[in-house]
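Design a sequence for this backbone.
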C-alpha cells in the first residue's frame, strides 16, 4: 500500500515504524525540520519536512495515488483540514486524529461527514476503552471492544442456576442484536444453531451492544446480578479521565476523580453528572487514606506523569485497593511496568500509543484480514473488508450459504455498527467481523473477498 502519514509525534512515528517493516511505501510528513532530520536514519520511509495542510506539499508527494492517508498530529484543525484536502485530491481512505471532545460532540456536528473523512479517532477514547475492559472483567475472561466500542465480545461461564439451560436457542427470548457465537464444551468448540442448547459449565462467547450483553449475562449467570456496587477511584483529570468516567459510570458503579487543579475539577463537574470530583493530590499517601482509597475496588491512574501513575498505584495497593490500573505514555516505561506488573501488584497497563496503533492497523491491507482476538481451541475473530466484486455484495445475510465452522458477528458501515441479522444486506466496503475455526478461516475469507 501507498501510505502517507502527517505528524511525526509518538503515534505517527511508532505507526510508521510498524508499517515500514511490512513492505509498504511510507511517506511521513512533519512541519518540524528538527524532527524529520532525526528520522532519516531510523525509518525505512520517505521523510518530508513540510506543511501537511498544503495542497502543494500533498501533490508533490503523490497524494492522488495514496491508498491510506493518516493525519495524526496533536492539532485537530491540522488533521481535519489535511485529511479533507487529501480526500478531495484522490486519497482512497483518509483518517484524522481528533481531540476526545470532538468525538463527544458527534451528536451536534458530524465532522467526519462535513470534511469528507472516512474515520475519526481520539487516543483518549481508545485508551479508555482498553481500561474499561479490565473494569468490566478483572478476573481475566476475554472482553474485546470492536467497531469503536459499539460492539463487544464477552465470554462467561453458564451457571447451573440459569433458567435458560437445556432449552433450544431458537426458543429463547434473547435481546435483539446479541449473538451467542461460540459454545466451548468438553474441550471442543460448537458454532451453535437454533437447535442447540446451553449446559451448566459451558463457556460461551457473546457479541452485541455492551448494554444488551449485560442484560443477557444476568440470565446466563444470575450471579452477575448479585454483585455489589463497584467503587472506582480515578487519579488525574483531563480527557483520559473524562472519557473513562463517561464509559464506566452508571447505577451500579460509583466513580470518583481526584485532580489537583481546581479549574479542571470545575470543568469535569460541569460535564460529568454521576461522578464525584475531588480537588486533591492522589500522590499524597495521607490524602489517599482520607479518601478511603483502600476500600475501592479499582484505582486507575491516568495523569500525564507516568512516574506518578505507577507510584500512586503502588500506594493504593498498599492501602488495600483490590485492582490497580495505570496509563503509561512513554513506551520504555510502559514495557518495563508491563513486564513487572504482577510483582508490582498492577492488574493492567495501557499505552495510548499502542491502543491507537492497534486500532489503525486494521485499515492496512497487509493481509486479506486482520486478527482481532484469539479465543480457546484456536478459534479466532477476524476482521476484513468486503471487496467490490465479492459474490456476497447485495445479498441478504440469510440468503448466503455460509461455510461451516464460522459465524458473522459484526458489521461496520461508515459510522454505523451493528450485529447483523438475516435481513441485513451486505455492501462493498463493509468491514465485517467473523468468528472462525482454523478449518473455516480460508473459506470465509474467500467468500467475502472474491
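Sequence:
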Amino acid at each position: 500500500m501507498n501510505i502517507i502519514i502527517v505528524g511525526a509525534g509518538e503515534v505517527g512515528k511508532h505507526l510508521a515504524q510498524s508499517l515500514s517493516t511490512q513492505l509498504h511505501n511510507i511517506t511521513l510528513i512533519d512541519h518540524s525540520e528538527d524532527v524529520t532530520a532525526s528520522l532519516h536514519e531510523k525509518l525505512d520511509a520517505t521523510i518530508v519536512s513540510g506543511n501537511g495542510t498544503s495542497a502543494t506539499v500533498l501533490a508533490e508527494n503523490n497524494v492522488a495515488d495514496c491508498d491510506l492517508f493518516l493525519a495524526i498530529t496533536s492539532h485537530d484543525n491540522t488533521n481535519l483540514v489535511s485529511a479533507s484536502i487529501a480526500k478531495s485530491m484522490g486519497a482512497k481512505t483518509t483518517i484524522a486524529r481528533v481531540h476526545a471532545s470532538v468525538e463527544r460532540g458527534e451528536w451536534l456536528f458530524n465532522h467526519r461527514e462535513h470534511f469528507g473523512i472516512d474515520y475519526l479517532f481520539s487516543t483518549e477514547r481508545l485508551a479508555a476503552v482498553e481500561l474499561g475492559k479490565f473494569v468490566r472483567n478483572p478476573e481475566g475472561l476475554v472482553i474485546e471492544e470492536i467497531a469503536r466500542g459499539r460492539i463487544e465480545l464477552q465470554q462467561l461461564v453458564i451457571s447451573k442456576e440459569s433458567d435458560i439451560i437445556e432449552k433450544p436457542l431458537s426458543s429463547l427470548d434473547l435481546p435483539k442484536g446479541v449473538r451467542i457465537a461460540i459454545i466451548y464444551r468438553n474441550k471442543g468448540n460448537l458454532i451453535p444453531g437454533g437447535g442447540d442448547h446451553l449446559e451448566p459449565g459451558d463457556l460461551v462467547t457473546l457479541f452485541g451492544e455492551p448494554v444488551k450483553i449485560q442484560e443477557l449475562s444476568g440470565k446466563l449467570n444470575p450471579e452477575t446480578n448479585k454483585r455489589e456496587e463497584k467503587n472506582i477511584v480515578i487519579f488525574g483529570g483531563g480527557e483520559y479521565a473524562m472519557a473513562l468516567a463517561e464509559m464506566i459510570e452508571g447505577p451500579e458503579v460509583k466513580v470518583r476523580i481526584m485532580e489537583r487543579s481546581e479549574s479542571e475539577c470545575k470543568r469535569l463537574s460541569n460535564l460529568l453528572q454521576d461522578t464525584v470530583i475531588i480537588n486533591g493530590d492522589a500522590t499524597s499517601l495521607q490524602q489517599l487514606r482520607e479518601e478511603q482509597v483502600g476500600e475501592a475496588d479499582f484505582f486507575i491512574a491516568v495523569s500525564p506523569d507516568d512516574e506518578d501513575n505507577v507510584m500512586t498505584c503502588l500506594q493504593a495497593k498498599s492501602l488495600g485497593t483490590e485492582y490497580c490500573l495505570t496509563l503509561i505514555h512513554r513506551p520504555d516505561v510502559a514495557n518495563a511496568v508491563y513486564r513487572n506488573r504482577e510483582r508490582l501488584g498492577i492488574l493492567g497497563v495501557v499505552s495510548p500509543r499502542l491502543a491507537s496503533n492497534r486500532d489503525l492497523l486494521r485499515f492496512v491491507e497487509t493481509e486479506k484480514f486482520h486478527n482481532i482476538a484469539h479465543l480457546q481451541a484456536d478459534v479466532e475473530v477476524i476482521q476484513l473488508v468486503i471487496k467490490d466484486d465479492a459474490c456476497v455484495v447485495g445479498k441478504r445475510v440469510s440468503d448466503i450459504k455460509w461455510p461451516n465452522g464460522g459465524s458473522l458477528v459484526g458489521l461496520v458501515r461508515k459510522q454505523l455498527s451493528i450485529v447483523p441479522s438475516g435481513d441485513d444486506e451486505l455492501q462493498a466496503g463493509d468491514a465485517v467481523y467473523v468468528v472462525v475455526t482454523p478449518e473455516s478461516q480460508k473459506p470465509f475469507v474467500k467468500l467475502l473477498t472474491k
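The chain is about 35% helix and 25% strand.
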